[in-house]
Amino acid sequence: MAGFAAEVARVEALGATPADVGQGDVTWRVLADPEGTQFCTLGPA
């Protein structure tokens, strides 16, 4: 899980912000780039 957390931290440092799309408790994080485009970062299953 450390790799997943590091990747989320990396893209947040590049300007991504958390996005809530009603995903609930899942193994991925939905983020949005500075222009508002949403994308998922997947963690290990």
Quaternary status: single chain
Q: How many DSSP-defined strands?
A: 3
Question: Which range does the strand content fall in?
Answer: 25-35%
Structural class: alpha+beta
Compute the gyration radius: what is it?
A: 10 Å
User: How would you sum up the global shape?
Assistant: flat
Strand order of the largest sheet: 1-2-3
* Integer count of domains: 1
Q: Uncertain segments of ≥5 residues (pLDDT<50)?
A: none
Roughly how many Å apart are the termini? 10 Å
Sequence of secondary-structure elements: HEEE
Task: Give the SSE map.
Elements: H1 2-13, E1 17-18, E2 28-32, E3 38-42
Antiparallel strand pairs: 1-2, 2-3
Organism: Actinocatenispora comari
Protein name: Glyoxalase-like domain-containing protein
Domain Glyoxalase-like: 5-41
What's this entry about, in short?
This is Glyoxalase-like domain-containing protein. Pfam families: Glyoxalase_6 (PF18029). The protein has 45 residues and is α+β, with helices and mostly antiparallel strands.
Task: Write structural notes for this entry.
- Residues 5-41 form the Glyoxalase-like domain.
- This is Glyoxalase-like domain-containing protein.
- InterPro entries: Glyas_Bleomycin-R_OHBP_Dase (IPR029068), Glyoxalase_6 (IPR041581).
- The protein has one helix at 2-13; strands spanning 17-18, 28-32, 38-42.
- It is an alpha+beta fold.
- It has one domain (2-42).
- The model has no long low-confidence stretch (mean pLDDT 90).
